[in-house]
Specification:
The strands form four sheets. Strands 4-10-9-8-7-5-6 form a seven-stranded mixed sheet, sandwiched between helices. It has a two-stranded antiparallel sheet with strand order 1-2. It has about 375 residues and is an alpha/beta fold. It has two domains: about 200 residues, Type I PLP-dependent aspartate aminotransferase-like (Major domain) (Aspartate Aminotransferase, domain 2, 3-Layer(aba) Sandwich); about 90 residues, Aspartate Aminotransferase, domain 1 (Alpha-Beta Complex). The chain binds pyridoxal-5'-phosphate.
């Protein structure tokens, strides 16, 4: 059965409130029934579990919003972008001047890398960790100081604090870390951020934090909104399953927000913005997805345990497992079984990162793991 949606009905369904004058309905569209969520194959017969995407999304309300947006795409997204910004600011409990939107959080990482790497700025980051900000800083003439993870493959916060020196322009923390999935202990991280940000800015990349068991207890956004020299980045690519839409944001001090905005070159599409607004209103979807991702990563850990392999206490939408062989060999063997996983993350060259996929994809993955590691 077809559903007739206008913008007002759609926004109501999405749980968003808005000023009627600012966003008066402009067009009604016929929205066809939604297809069941599916994860298009990377190649025929292959399961893609190497990019930390979330195949449970986008939520049905976000998909519906995108269908509506397609028909309105002759218009620039003006009031809609303001509405998204307003909703995000309300979510974070800060003024809109403390939010920067990006084409994925990747655009924000690039802007921050260029900003803090400029004039030989030195970025302190963990090793291994997510490299996009560091690479941008290096392109801008900056340098990286890479601090090895501790024995539990978590950020070594004391060592990172000790590394801060006169040339440090930024400390970059990824929580949970990619590729290891490990989280920083919440109280220790807060203390670290309070102390270190009194000397240099601290950037916390919380791309996967909404997938964890205790998002509210672990987020550092409150420090960014309460006057500390802290940036927190979030993405719609992970918990909201919108990697292909490209939407992320940062919460940060107003002055720094203005500096980063000056380096942003992207501009969000109406489709992405409307999907973002709908996603923010769909809390039931987020709760259900979080549970599915947790079940998926715990099943991978149980599999590793059953096969006698080490694994980390990962909390994102992926697991990190010691394969006992060079990871390139493991990747080849898994691919022969129809599953794309991992890539080398030096210096942890026997470890593989495996993303949680749809249940049927995980069946293929578990079968492959038993064959390759059994
Ligand atoms: C830790 C981390 N931060 C940021 C990103 C960038 O994500 P996006 O640009 O899709 O928001 C990723 C992508 O995988 C990531 O793993």
């Amino acid at each position: 059965m077809n559903t007739l949606l206008n913008r007002r009905q759609w926004l109501k369904a999405a749980g968003a409130t808005l000023a009627a004058t600012a966003l008066a309905p402009r067009l009604s569209l016929r929205a066809d029934p939604l297809p069941a969520p599916s994860a298009p194959a990377a190649a025929p017969g292959l399961v893609q579990l190497s990019w930390n995407e979330n195949p449970f999304g986008p939520s049905p309300s976000a998909q519906r919003a995108m269908q509506v947006a397609v028909g309105r795409s002759c218009r620039y997204p003006d009031a809609e972008e303001e509405e998204l910004l307003r909703l995000i600011a309300a979510r974070e409990g800060c003024p809109t001047s403390q939010i920067v939107l990006g084409n994925g959080s990747g655009e924000i990482l690039d802007a921050a890398g260029f900003h803090f790497g400029y004039e030989k700025g030195e970025i302190i980051a963990a090793n291994p960790s997510y490299m996009q900000l560091v690479v941008a800083a290096e392109k801008a003439g900056g340098a990286a100081v890479r601090i090895p993870l501790n024995a539990r493959l978590e950020h070594d916060l004391p060592a990172m604090a000790a590394a801060v020196g006169p040339r440090t322009s930024l400390v970059y923390i990824v929580n949970p870390n990619n590729p290891t999935g490990t989280v920083c202990e919440a109280a220790e991280l807060r203390e670290f951020v309070r102390t270190v940000s009194a000397r240099v800015p601290v950037f916390i990349d919380e791309a996967y934090l909404e997938c964890t068991d205790d998002f509210a207890g672990r987020t550092c956004a409150g420090l960014a909104t309460s006057g500390h020299n802290v940036v927190v980045a979030r993405t719609f690519s992970k918990i909201f399953g919108m990697a292909g839409c490209r939407l992320g944001y940062a919460v940060l001090p107003e002055k720094l927000a203005a500096s980063l905005r000056a380096r942003m070159t992207g501009s969000l599409s109406l489709t992405t913005i409307m999907a973002g607004i709908a996603s923010l209103g769909d809390t039931a979807y987020v709760t259900a997805t979080r549970a599915k991702l947790k079940a998926g990563r715990e099943a991978l850990m149980a599999q590793a345990r059953a096969l006698g392999r080490e694994y980390t206490a990962a909390q994102g939408n992926f697991a990190f497992i010691k394969t006992g062989m060079p990871v390139q060999d493991f990747v080849k063997k898994m691919r022969a079984e129809g599953v794309i996983v991992g890539r080398p993350f030096p210096p942890l060259l026997e470890w593989a990162r495996i993303t949680v996929g749809l249940p049927e994809e995980m069946e293929t993955c578990h079968r492959a793991l038993r064959k390759v590691l059994g």
